[in-house]
Amino acid sequence: MPDKSQLARIGGRAGRGLAGLVGIAVVIATLGAATLVTLPALELDPQSIEVAPLPSEQQRVCPGPLMTLAEDSAQAQSASSVGAASAVYGAVEADGVTQIRPQVTEIRAVDDSNSRQPPLLLTVPVQTGATIPPLVAGSQSQVAATDTLGGLGVAACAEAVRDSWIVGGSTDIGSTSLLLLSNPTSVLATVDVTVSGESGLIDAPGAAGILVQPGEQRVIALAGLAPNVKSPVLHVQSRGGQVAAALEQSSIRGIEPGGVEIIGTTASPATEQTIAGVRATTAVTDDAVTTGEGFNADTPSVRVFVPGDIAATVQLGVTSTDPAIEGTSTQVQVEPGIVTEVPLSPLAVGSYSVQLRSDEPIVAAARTATVGAAGKDFGWFSASAPLEGDFSVAVAAGPSPTLHLVNGGAADASLTLTPDSGTPVDVRVAAGASATVPLQSGARYVVSGGEQLWALVDYSGDGVLSSFAVNPPGPLASSIRIYTH
Amino acid sequence: MQPRVTAILVARNGAKHLERTLKALSLQTRKPDSVITVDCGSDDATAKMLAEFGPTQFIAADADLNFGQAINAAVSVTTPPAHDREMLWLLAQDSAPDPTALEVLVDALEIAPSVAVAGPKVMEWIAGEYIHDLGESITPAGTTVTLVESELDQGQHDGLSDVLAVSAGGMLVRHTVWDQLGGFDPALPTIDDSLDFCVRVRLAGYRVSVVPAARITSAGDGVAGPNQSSRGRLRRRRVRAERSAQLHRRLVYAPAGALVFHWLSLLPLAFIRSIGQLLRKEPGAIVGEFSAAFGAAFNGRRVSNARRSFAKTRTLGWDAISTLRVPSAEVRRRHTLKREASLFGLYGERPEVRFFSGGGAWTMLGATVLGIVMMVPLLGADTLSGGGLLPLSPNLSDLWASVGYGWRDLGLGFVGAADPFAAVVAVLGSIAFWAPSFALVLVYALAFPLAALGAWMAATRLTDRGSLRALAAALWVLAPTFLIALADGRPAAILVHLLLPWLFFTWFAAARTWSSSASAALLFAAVAACAPSLTPALLVVWALSVALAGRSIMRFIGIPLPALALALPLIFDQGLRGTWLNLVADPGLPVPSAHAPSLQLLLGLPGTDGWSGVLDRYGVVGVDPQLVVPLLLAPLAVLALLALLLPGARLASGAWLVAVLGFGTALAANQLVLAAIGAEPVRVWSGSGLSLYWLGLVGALVIGLRSLHRFASMPGVVAAVALAVVVLPLVSSLHLGTAAVREGTGQTQPAFIAAEAQIDTRVGTLQLTPQVDGGLLASIERGVGATLNQQSTLDSTDQTLSARDKAFAELAGNLASRSGLETSADLAEFGIRFIVLQPAGTSVEAAETALRTETALDGNAALAAVGDTEFGRLWQFGETDAAASIPLPARAGGVFRLVTLLIMIAVVGSAVLLSLPIGAGREAVRQANRDAIRRAARADGKQKQKQKQKSKRSRRAKGRVLESDLATPLEPPLGTHLEADLAMDRETGVGTGLESDNGLEPTGDGDAEESDVETTDTKHSSAHAAVEVSAAAQVDKKTNAEDDNAR
């Protein structure tokens, strides 16, 4: 019967269509469900070992006495030292108790035409059997009171490094900046100095390939490299041997000395920078600040520089150690390659810590000035690297040394400051907070109990102001994570 | 004295044939004087029929009696012969004689008293005009030769008389001679029993004669003579019995002195012949080959019995029959002729690919042009680098040495399994043997045309329309996952995309030919080696194929074997570690990739589509690629889904199953991080799964479009153009600079080290790479540097650190620090002569680590800075050969390497031999001839049927239907296996040689026709169909066409 077969055919087609629709539904449902469902993941972590390198001989170089350029105009570029700096140094074994006596030698100050007291080189040899390096610290201080030089300059005795940044100095009228490069290693160091200023990178032909012989200190007038730069930032790189770099800045206001400072290296470029302490001795109000041409060099400010190619948005937080004073936070846009001064205002008298958070790596340091009966002085406060674990601080002689601490750890830190002689001091620093501790002048402390601290020591007195940041031993000796495949 | 004939009829379960045989026996013009029927334990109506026939004697015997023994049983009940004119006529259930057969045979013995055995012309049972066999002989080497076999009988052999031997069925033998020689050798159950008997007859001084005028049939039931069924098991048994018989005869006939030699040659010969069996696509015969050899070797009693009885009756030397032997050259000539015919049949039946006329060449040309456009920045490159691309070992021996279990010269080096991918790389490198690294350039240069070719060929399995094949090729070439793999420099993923269409191509035909099956197995191994993550999905498809394969199950069951053999050592090693999941880690140099959102994977994109980058670059706003890309890909998805509604839906659902499996693989891979390179975790590449996904999609799309007939072009073009727009940024990735791959220098290390490596090939270089987390990746490279073939997932997935790893890390950590460690001794111990600090990336932490490391190395008194190179800063340790390089450990893999290598060689080698399409062997040729006869019989049956239908119609017109017509069976009665095969063929349309291209006929009713599953069953050995009789084949084609119309 044809009807039957026709019906069968129609039925077959309908069945086929239905099956097809079911198939489509199944496919879409399967794919859809697989797409929407959150699947469990199996992610194996890469394997690695944290290797703590065997301790090696440690060296610190103190910058030496303050220098001044010769008054003799025929020798405008030759420097001579003024007076002598007094240094305090020491080393403690990792247990924090056993004192080690560093070997002290001298660095030849070849550029010093008046070499009375050369810079010191502290060497702490490897202790037999030690697996953890000893804590070494040293600092020097000097008060200058000559016709051209006045004020307090303190500096940390620093490790020679391969790559360092100095934020500070000026070669504007009335300012003199001298770059001190010391090579404590046994290898010739070839140093390239890159100077950037408020107008960008400064082309300085003499800044490349500066030779620093082993065991020598070179003094280079920054004005010779970058004249008339208000806000220089220096990047010091060495090949071969390594150098400890410092920048001595002095200024003259009219006919009076305007202060002196030995500016240590600041922390290398990173998106977060912490200046553990900034001391303001005079209050600043909003309207006291002007920018650009009329920028007052005495205004507390932060000098920020972006080494990269991309403009950075920097969040600048100023926190007082005095809970009564409210912190401030400002956001600034920093163009790449151009040094920018950000005024810290308004600012009450007191001590602060400054946090900089940026979306691009930056370097930074702060500066304040003081005026007293005895004269004027200014101080640079550099950013530093976090100190993980115990560290030691050597406090060079000077007026009211104060330790500034910032706790970057997640937990409150109960710190114990153990001086080499005297009673230990206990300090508690809340997580993320800062604290100040007065120190004994000329003492050496071991600070234990911290996990992640930033530290800076400042000195202030009547018309004198100075500081040095406490940095951990160079990353070279820190442990490193090694992947073997 | 009158001649007296005793007919002995032996039957076993032969009721189907017995009726005709008994009837023919009763119609003899010269009736046998007595008839003895022997029933060998039948369980059907045989015994009843034999008894009812009214024989002189009826013997009910055991089932395990062979023909010779059954005859002997019958002979034992006869009276001993009084004179030499008493004769025995040996018959089987399927030996239906012509009415005059006995008369003619008896005459032949009567005329010539020296003739002791007379044999009839044995005809086919159903195709009665074909000679089943006529006379037998042996070659000088002793191989059995059937003088005439499976030929159309046109009287061309009727002049034949004196032969060496005749076949058992229908043989008339003098009773006295039978008794004198003791009948058939019991060691020869079915095969060569009569041959051996006749040889002994000849050497006892009698003659053997064939009488073509006497005709008798054989259905190949296996009672007298071998079972002729082409079913796998019976066929394998026959082949084995043939070899057993041949070996038995060789040992019996051989002079005593040569016996030891023959005995020792049994196993080596079995081995060599096995290789031959593989080449002849008879893998099933290998087991029989060895069991025959063992059987012959360890059944000495049978041989000695046979030798004794032979020696007793033998009066003449072998020279007496030398003229009756067939020269080997003649055998070869005959075989060549038949083989050509069978090869013709083999290729003649294949669907025409029409590569040039179908547009395949143009498609490839188009793909080549597109490839050149994409690769312009790489033109003229000698080597490539970037991504996962590394050079290969510069010489082939090193390349192949990195295959299998053994020393992995990676980093510190360890003993372990190589990835199966190393074998793929070795094959690839061997193609460019003059400079193996150039193989990767070749892959890139030919990637587009090869992908197009593969897809085009795969599409030939689905459609015969050139435009659809070209569309499939275009969609396959433009697959985003392929383009991303090319841009990222993932050689393994590229190979997967190139091989997958071929895997489908061969898999589709695997049911039909061993060659395809073995090729599929090799491609499976290659794909699984390149992307182990695809293995589960492929195994699912395989399991389904096996489940649905039916009779050709054997052709599917072995497909994963080569992959398994290659991965065996790795499975062992990862199993020892207990990290089974790591088996799916991507081989080769690990290339990190980001976690892809599931939706992106659904679009076939394992990475970003690149549109946002392009739009940003050219400042185009207002276009959201998140929205546009899915819209552009929608036509493709819709068409692929539509296929489920159109004819061919079953095949399309198979394609969708593949697609879903591929997508599932991609999703799972996306969730797996198994390996790491330094601090960077390496995700399993989801792109390989997406290649499979894409294969299913394109397949479904082609299946759908072919049912749209002439409406297919528009939607197809729309889908392709939309896809082309989507992949525009991927095609131009090399121009845009978003691709990782770039022209290489052929080196992975500074030239200074390369020069040193010329002198000391094992010079060690410590490579230090700063990591994003501030860590440092330290690895040792020996000689000229890392190679692709030495990469190992065992290393990249290792979650443990050995003591040596730790010591090495300690050294690296101290080298990268200001340290008090005396490094010289350690550097020498690890054989490090150079240290390269690779440049840090953009990360601040990495830059700090780089600086620190550089400072530390500069300050290391044991090291001398050489300078900055394009691969980073270089230091040298020691001035000259201060640090002795570490030699390659000898025999690192030990016995395990040897064993696994042998397994690999055996399995992969077998697959390679089996995959070579070099035509059919002797057995296949015989099979082909039988098939040709089968067709002829079928054509005959069809024509008769048609005539009857015609006559029926005419009669119906007259209004009268004759009862007798309806009662007449339209088909030959179902009897032999041959007929059963035939009947099945008729039902399924298989065995005609055209079954495979059903899907190629867009006019056909696509739905019922095929899915890859459907076509896999029953197809069996028809590939070997020989067209011995061209007329038969032509008739056959015609009938087949009719068949299709009928359906």
What labels describe this entry?
heterodimer, A: 485 residues, mainly beta, seven-stranded antiparallel β-sheet, five-stranded mixed β-sheet, 2 helices, 37 strands, 8% helix, elongated, B: 1047 residues, alpha/beta, nine-stranded mixed β-sheet, 41 helices, 12% strand
* Number of helical segments with 4 or more residues of chain A: 2
Q: What oligomeric state best describes the polypeptide chains here?
A: heterodimer
Query: Could you estimate the helical fraction of the residues of chain A in percent?
Result: under 10%
List low-confidence stretches of chain B: 955-1047
Query: What is the rounded Rg of chain B?
Result: 36 Å
How large is the count of helical segments of chain B? 41
Major sheet of chain B: 9 strands, mixed
Overall mean pLDDT of chain B stands at 83
| Secondary-structure-derived class of chain B | alpha/beta
Measured by DSSP, the beta-strand proportion of chain B falls in 5-15%
Percent of residues in β-strands of chain A:
over 45%
Largest sheet of chain A: 7 strands, antiparallel
Distance between the termini of chain B: 65 Å
Low-pLDDT residue intervals, each spanning 5 or more residues of chain A: none
Largest interface, with counts of residues having CB < 8 Å to the other chain, equals: A-B, 59 and 74 residues
The residue fraction in helices of chain B comes out at: 40-55%
Helix- and strand-based class of chain A?
Answer: mainly beta
The dominant shape of chain A is elongated
Roughly how many Å is the radius of gyration of chain A?
A: 29 Å
User: Based on CA inertia axes, which overall geometry of chain B fits?
Assistant: elongated
Tell me the total number of β-strands of chain B: 20
Walk me through what this model shows.
The complex is a heterodimer of chains A (485) and B (1047). The termini of chain A are far apart. Chain A is 8% helix and 48% strand. Chain A is elongated and about 125 Å long. Chain A is mainly beta and 485 residues long. In chain A, strand 15 and strand 16 (200-202) form a beta hairpin. In chain A, the strands form 9 sheets. In chain A, strands 22, 23, 24, 25, 26, 27 and 28 form a 7-stranded antiparallel beta sheet that branches. A 5-stranded mixed beta sheet of chain A has the order 9-18-14-20-21. In chain B, a hairpin with a 5-residue loop joins strand 16 and strand 17 (776-782). In chain B, helix 22 runs antiparallel to helix 36. The radius of gyration of chain B is 36 Å and the shape is elongated. The model of chain B is unreliable at 955-1047 (pLDDT under 50). At the A-B interface, helix 1, strand 1 and strand 37 of A face helix 23, helix 26, strand 13, strand 17 and helix 33 of B. Strand 1 (42-43) of chain A pairs parallel with strand 13 (672-677) of chain B, so a sheet runs across the interface.
